[in-house]
Amino acid sequence: MIFPLLRRWFILIHLIPKKMKQLNFLFTILIATISINLQAQSDDQAKLENLKYYLTSVKDNVQSMRYYTDSVKIISLLDQIDALTTQVEAEVNTIVVPVEDMPEFIDTPEGETVEVPEMPEPESTNPAMNEENMGQDGIGISKYMPFKKKFNTSLKIEFGINTLLSGDKVAGTLYPEINTGGSWYWDFGLMRSVTLGGKESKVAFNYGLSYLKNRFKIENDVRLASNADNQPEFIPVENAKCNPKLNIGYLNVPLGFTFALSRKTKLELGGYVGYRIHTVQKNHLKVGTESIYEARSARYNLNNWIYGATASIDISGFNLIARYNFSKLFKDNPNFDYNTIMIGTSMNLF
Predict the structure, then answer these.
(1) Could you tell me where the beta strands, DSSP code E, fall in 119-202?
(2) How far apart are CA 151 and CA 60, in angstroms?
(3) Any idea what the Cα angle at residue 181 is, between residues 179 and 185, rounded to 5°?
(4) What is the CATH T-level fold of the domain 153-348, as seen in this structure?
């Protein structure tokens, strides 16, 4: 009964389109591995354990495959694979391994009773068991399995332009003029996604850890400094060859929810909280025949903590992202009431 189901399974997998060839190859290896193990194993209990292990791997990885496709045809084929897996599982659960009773004592002709020594149990051939025995750094059999447990973790790179939104300005105070086209931000993050409400759910929770860098290009050649009261101020940069640049880096914890509006459209809403870990001003000066590069670093009474909101819309793989910092750039300073706004896009490397 099992082998006809596996044969139907094999035929079904080959219906997956060419763009899924890699997944097709993995399923083929799985079926071949099951057949080899069934022939190579002499112990019935070990065979049964391996069957159950591979079935669990298939169910886990079919679920992971659903996360990476919006194709109606592929989802339909995956539903059929689920149905076949359920039939195979039901058939496997009906298998009963006979247990042979071994006598513990043997009566000798003289009437003496001799105890039969216990035989050591054979080493388990279950790949999961072997990997546990090898330890995390060891080489277990499942390390080479075509299916391993998938974690929806990705390296997300977000980039775009940013600028500063200011409140009321005070007369007689020198303010920076931000060149928005030359001001950009980068965000490198490790993100994980967890589907909420089962495999048919259209909502996922996202969380991770990221490094955000804001770079502001100052058009009117001023730089940030601290006055005698340790308050921030902007002063002119003499002999500036290029516009000064202010770089601020934060370590963030982003959180959010993704909503699948349709097969090709997704909406993400969330926020982030972070801590400032890096502040550098870069100036390029020209004095006579000399080129001077400055890198100035200080606290400048900048806000150490940031928090903000994120919203993005993804259509057919391209997303547009908007971010706004509710926290002020400076600590309670009436002269410089700045909030950061960012607009960009992102890509996932894996």
Answers:
(1) 153-166, 184-196
(2) 11
(3) 95
(4) Porin (2.40.160)
Length of the chain measured in residues? 350
Burial 64-85 (b: 16+ CB within 10 A, else e): ebbeebeeeebeebbeebeebb
Query: Could you give the angle at which helices 2-13 and 21-40 cross, rounded to 10 degrees?
Result: 160
Strands 105-107, 265-287: pairing is unpaired
How many alpha carbons fall within 13 Å on the CB side of residue 56?
14
CA distance 341 to 240: 27
pTM over 0.90: no
Residues 110-126 have a mean pLDDT of 49
Residue 287: per-residue pLDDT: 93
Exposed/middle/buried for 205, CB within 10 Å: 0-12, 13-18, 19+? middle
- Coil/strand/helix, residue 60: helix
3-class secondary structure, 148: coil
Contact partners, residue 177, CB within 8 Å, separation at least 6: 218, 219, 220
Other CB atoms within 10 A of residue 312 CB: 20
Residue 348 burial (CB count, 10 A): 10
What stretch of H or E contains 21?
Answer: helix 21-40
- What is the SS3 assignment for 278? strand
Q: Where are the domains of the chain?
A: 2-144, 153-348
pLDDT digits (tens, 9 = 90+) for 203-242: 999 999 999 999 999 999 999 999 988 899 999 999 999 9
Q: Which helix (H) or strand (E) holds 214?
A: strand 203-217
Of 7-21, 61-75, 296-310, 316-330, the range with the lowest mean pLDDT is 7-21
Which band of pLDDT confidence, cut at 50, 70 and 90, is reported for residue 82?
confident
Burial class (CB in 10 A: 0-12, 13-18, 19+), 196: exposed
Residue with the two structure tokens 């963030």: 252
Q: 203-217 and 222-226: which strand pairing? A: unpaired
Model confidence at 70: pLDDT above 90: no
Q: Residue 241 burial (CB < 10 Å; 0-12/13-18/19+)?
A: middle
Amino acid at 338: Y
